[in-house]
Target: G-protein coupled receptors family 1 profile domain-containing protein
Amino acid sequence: MSRRVTLTNSLSRAKRELKMVRRLVILVIIIFAVASPYALFVLISFFTAPPKYHFRIGYIFINLSVASAMIALLQFTDPLKASIKKIIYGRLNTVTPTMT
Model:
């Protein structure tokens, strides 16, 4: 009996860890994909004259990557998603009649 319980616990733990790794990989891919133009501008500036305002343009991509990572984190975290929905939609005041 204890072997089955241990096996079940380890399987559920492995599923949780796999889910966590998948979410982490998705976040890293989002950050790298959106922030890659900034890295490209920095790389260009080492070898040639970069375009005018290249750091400003690159900064926009950094901000977009942080914003998209935050949105992905909100999607991944269920308690945080529930609390934000509660703040946005508020509590519904329902009146229930009582019999006296």
